[in-house]
Amino acid sequence: MIRMELGKNSYNIEIERGHLAKAGELLNLNRKVMIITDEGVPSTYAETIAQQCKKAYIKVVSQGEQSKSLRTAEEILTEMLEAQFSRKDCVVAVGGGVVGDLGGFVASLYMRGVDFYNVPTTVLSQVDSSIGGKTAVNLAGIKNIIGAFYQPKAVLIDPDTLNSLPERQIVNGLFEAIKMGATSDKELFDLFLNDDWKKHLDLIIEKALLVKKHVVEQDEKESHLRKILNYGHTIGHGFESAAHGRYLHGECVALGMLYMSSEEVQEQLCEIYEKLGFELPEFYTFDLEEVKEAITHDKKANGQSCSIVYVSEIGHGSIEEWSMDEVLDRLECNEDEEYIW
Ligand SMILES: NC(=O)c1ccc[n+]([C@@H]2O[C@H](COP(=O)([O-])OP(=O)(O)OC[C@H]3O[C@@H](n4cnc5c(N)ncnc54)[C@H](O)[C@@H]3O)[C@@H](O)[C@H]2O)c1
């Protein structure tokens, strides 16, 4: 168990194989519970939680980003109202970052906030998105633009749920753990570089969570230090936008990290990507102008400068202010090579 220390918003992160079946002991489910899951998550996970609730309602949303919408949130809020949920009832998200972000958002709104529990079932959500309290939906094609900081009452992580997760999704989430290792924990990074990550998945989850816990405890609302979690994300978001769904978020972060690292770190990252079976895209895969436009658009609010995270040495990421031109110049460094990196 890891304790997230955030004053009155503190909570436990319970990590153990088989925990899903013990949810009733670890969470207060002795009330009305709105369980939010999606079509891609094996239904047994939500059902296992439901069996341990006093009165459970299961809401299955479509899989994918389109469910992170005001429309879906309204649907769920309406169902809670119709089922006469009170201020003392709760919401549980069972799935990846999509239902986690949506569930937290809904919980933050109903009667100005009801208890929220997160039961993440993807690597990405287990190592990253389930803790930290960022909830959101998308609007007008802009990701995570509507939301609140709203901490869960507890997070329940059962690594056994990853047994059903496709390999590509597993690797996608591991990139976020590699990110945390690269900026803040060399031992975590070395589990990928010098060892077989498959033997250490539980340890990887725990170590990544400890990095995030440390960062969030010091900077809950992202005024400075929390930006360290954005390593690879500035350029990564540009690739994600220009990929039009062909590459997953973590894969784009993996590319983004390469552009914000010293040569030595780049070599180590590439070695890890090869071990994970992640093939770097060929250069023509992306329209570079589109990537640049997305990066510039993303950072418009900050004028011509932007905070980036640069890793010159593993375990020592630094938050730096770069001009937009400096960021965009990084993309030029390999333009005549066959591969994106
Ligand atoms: N709140 C935060 O701090 C934060 C941080 C990072 C990312 N995010 C958000 O997280 C989302 C991405 O999360 P994700 O990568 O988990 O994607 P996701 O929630 O879309 O899950 C990926 C896919 O895996 C399926 N799935 C989930 N669990 C499964 C299981 N155990 N077995 C089989 N299939 C399963 C889902 O149905 C989905 O199709 C994005 O919306 C992103 O904005 C939030």
Please sum up the structure shown.
With 341 residues, the protein is an alpha/beta fold.
Structure description:
The chain has two domains: 2-164, Rossmann fold, CATH 3.40.50.1970; 167-334, Dehydroquinate synthase-like - alpha domain (Dehydroquinate synthase-like, alpha domain). Helix 3 crosses helix 4 (97-109), helix 5 runs parallel beside helix 6 (167-184) and helix 9 packs across helix 10 (249-259). It has helices at 23-26, 43-50, 70-82, 97-109, 123-129, 167-184, 186-193, 201-218, 233-243, 249-259, 263-275, 288-298, 324-330; strands spanning 2-4, 11-15, 32-38, 55-61, 90-95, 115-120, 134-139, 142-149, 154-157, 305-313, 316-323. The chain has a seven-stranded mixed β-sheet, sandwiched between helices. Strands 7-8 form a two-stranded antiparallel sheet. It is α/β, with parallel strands linked by helices and 341 residues long. It starts with a strand and ends in an 11-residue tail after the last helix. Helix content is 42%, strand content 20%. The chain has 13 helices and eleven strands. It binds nicotinamide-adenine-dinucleotide. Residues 38, 40-42, 63-65, 68, 95-98, 101, 121-122, 124-125, 128-129, 132, 134, 143-144, 161, 164-165, 169, 249 line the site of nicotinamide-adenine-dinucleotide.
